[in-house]
Amino acid sequence: MADTPAPGDLPECDQPREDGLLPAELRAWMHLLAAAGAIEQQLHSLVKEALGVSHDEFLVLCLLADQPGATLRMTRIAELLGRPKTRLTYQVACLQHAGLATRRASRCDRRGIEVTLTDKARQLLDEASPALADAITQAVACAVGPRYREALRGLLAGTPDTGAPDSYSPPADMHKQLG
After folding, report:
1. What's the pTM value of the predicted model, to 2 decimals?
2. CA 170, 145, 154 angle in degrees (round to 5)?
């Protein structure tokens, strides 16, 4: 039977390695990606329950809601989400079928297609947003420790508790704050 290490000899799971195996920038990115993954996991079922749409369809709705006139071209949505246009066509068709989005030929370029949020979608987003925001906050709290949460909060301009202006730019030593 192998020797079992004493409890004091085991590394602490939540502590970063002291030997610097990962550069601070990579460690910071890994924490950010862990938080993003936790958020996506938390949102998948909540979005389906609250809005009746998939997580990817929810992302399209959020992009539209954040635009002047709640309208974007299909090609721009695909670029912003990093999704193939064929997949996006299916998602927008689902949103259109649910009465949450409309699509029409672009006024500026008849070859382009514009997608617009409907009033029904605006109402659903308005009603569901507080609970979804709480879920995101909880997911981040579970994914990263307090030091990382504060650093992330500082990166998110205009979010509660930061007081940061909309034109916030992260400090040059952000990797030190996260690492």
Report:
1. 0.67
2. 20
